[in-house]
Write a structure and sequence with these properties.
Rossmann fold, 6 helices, single chain, 221 residues, seven-stranded mixed β-sheet, globular
Length: 221
C-alpha cells in the first residue's frame, strides 16, 4: 500500500510539473505575442512622428525661426504654446548640450505628446514642460535669451498686456519672436508696438507665415 501511494504521488507530481510547463509556455507565448504587438504599435507611432515632422519641416522652414531667435548652445529659450513640439525639437537641437527650452502650454496632454517626439529625437532632457494659464506667460523674470510665440498670440485675451509681462522675462539682450499666419500679422504687429517692443527684423520665409523679432522696450537695434 505504501508503494502504491508513493507511485501515485510520483504520478501526480509528474502531471503537475507537465501542466506547469504547459502553462508557462502558454504565458510566454502570450507575452511574446503582446510584445510583438506593442513593438509594432511603437514602431508605427515613431513612423507617424517622423512623417509629421518631415512634412512640417518642409512646409514651414523652422530653421528660419531658429535664425530669428538667434539662439545657440547654452541659450535658454521659451517656446510658448509649444503644443506637440514640432518647433520645440528644433529649438532643443539649437541649444544643446548645455542650454534649455521651457515649453509651455495650457494643455498637459499635448505636452505629453511633445515628450514622445522629444524622446524619439533624444532631446527630452533638454526640454522642461510647463503648464501655464491662458493669459499669463508663466516665465521667470530676466531669465530668457529668447521667447517664441508660434501661431499663438492671436489667442491671448489681452495680447498687449501679455507681451509686456513676457518682456520682463527677457535678459537685457533677449528678444521675442512672433511667427504666425499672414492674416494675423497686422494685429500681432500692432500689439507688439503698443507693448513697447522694438521691431528688430521681419521676414516671410513661406507665403503663408511671417516671422518678426522684437527687442524689449528701450532696447537699441
Amino acid at each position: 500500500m505504501q508503494v502504491i501511494t508513493r507511485a501515485r504521488l510520483a504520478a501526480v507530481r509528474a502531471v503537475l510539473i507537465a501542466l506547469a510547463a504547459c502553462l508557462g509556455l502558454a504565458a510566454c507565448s502570450g507575452k511574446d505575442s503582446d510584445a510583438g504587438k506593442n513593438g509594432g504599435a511603437q514602431n508605427n507611432k515613431a513612423d507617424d512622428i517622423t512623417r509629421e515632422q518631415a512634412r512640417f519641416d518642409a512646409e514651414r522652414k523652422p530653421e528660419k525661426v531658429v535664425q530669428a531667435l538667434k539662439i545657440g548652445p547654452g541659450s535658454r529659450v521659451a517656446d510658448v504654446g509649444a503644443g506637440s513640439g514640432l518647433l520645440t525639437v528644433h529649438l532643443a537641437r539649437a541649444v544643446k548640450p548645455t542650454g534649455q527650452v521651457v515649453a509651455t502650454d495650457i494643455d498637459s496632454a499635448v505636452l505629453d505628446l511633445m515628450h514622445s517626439r522629444l524622446q524619439a529625437a533624444g532631446l527630452a532632457d533638454i526640454v522642461e514642460r510647463r503648464v501655464v494659464g491662458a493669459d499669463t506667460p508663466g516665465l521667470e523674470d530676466a531669465t530668457y535669451d529668447a521667447i517664441l510665440l508660434a501661431e499663438v498670440d492671436h489667442y491671448f485675451g489681452d495680447p498687449i498686456g501679455w507681451l509686456k509681462a513676457a518682456a520682463k522675462a527677457l535678459k537685457p539682450t533677449g528678444r521675442i519672436v512672433i511667427s504666425n499666419r499672414i492674416h494675423h500679422r497686422a494685429k500681432s504687429m500692432a500689439a507688439a508696438q503698443k507693448a513697447g517692443l522694438v521691431l528688430e527684423a521681419e521676414s516671410t520665409p513661406v507665403p503663408t507665415h511671417f516671422i518678426a523679432s522684437f527687442l524689449p522696450p528701450g532696447a537699441a537695434k
